[in-house]
Amino acid sequence: MEQNKEKIEGQENQKETKTYTEEEVQKLLQSETDKRVTQALKTAQEKWQKEYEAKLEQERSEAEKLAKMTEQERLLAEFEKQKKAFEEEKKQFLKAQLEMQTVKELSALGLPTDFSKFVMADNAETIKTNIDTFKTYWEQAIEKAVNEKLQGTTPKVSTKTGGSITKEQFKKMTIAEKTALFNEDPDLYYSLRD
């Protein structure tokens, strides 16, 4: 009985410590990847099939409605359908016009035209308000950035030279030391160089 128990424990230990070669790992990964891709494709195909069937059913029901209608009703339904399509195209055209006008307005004010999508709205008045607000914030941000750049840092006082270098000391300096002196105090450098 104890021998059977030891055999079972030995088998469990073997199962737990199974090692795989790189090739086996690649095969397992490929297998798992294939399963996931296949599932994703299947899901997408089912979605497309449902959409296709819904559209087909809609077309079929519309055709049945048209078949039951009189000639005048059919013409009226076709007119309504065309009117709806025209209204949608008109809406898209007006939106494109507003976008072009927004870009033009931004350009005229010297603002980046890339921001046109951020100030877009449904009507010209709202767009104008958005552009004015954007311009105010834009100018404030630029002014702040310029002021920060202009503040700069406090000029460094040469601690190394202290202004007490003689021409003889200057002549004995290496090129690196002369360059450092030039960077720290150009006036002193030019006065010693002569």
Task: Write structural notes for this entry.
- Keywords: Coiled coil.
- InterPro entries: Gp46.
- This protein has helices spanning 2-16, 22-68, 71-108, 116-119, 124-151, 167-172, 175-184, 186-193.
- By secondary structure, the protein is mainly alpha-helical.
- Among the domains are: 69-151; 160-194, no CATH class.
- The model has no long low-confidence stretch (mean pLDDT 83).
List the helices and strands and how they pair.
Layout: H1 2-16, H2 22-68, H3 71-108, H4 116-119, H5 124-151, H6 167-172, H7 175-184, H8 186-193
Helix pairs in contact: 3-5, 7-8
Largest beta-sheet characterization? none
Helix count, per DSSP? 8
Percent of residues in beta strands = under 5%
Structural class of the helices, strands and pairings? mainly alpha
What pattern of helices and strands is seen along the backbone? Answer: HHHHHHHH
Helix content: over 70%
Average pLDDT confidence is 83
Q: How would you sum up the global shape?
A: flat
Total DSSP E strands: 0
| Unreliable stretches covering 5 or more consecutive residues | none
N-to-C span: 106 Å
Question: Oligomeric state of the chains?
Answer: single chain
Radius of gyration: 40 Å
What descriptive keywords fit this protein?
mainly alpha; Gp46; 194 residues; DUF4355 domain-containing protein; single chain; 0% strand; 80% helix; 8 helices
Q: Nutshell version of this structure?
A:
80% of the residues lie in helices and 0% in strands.
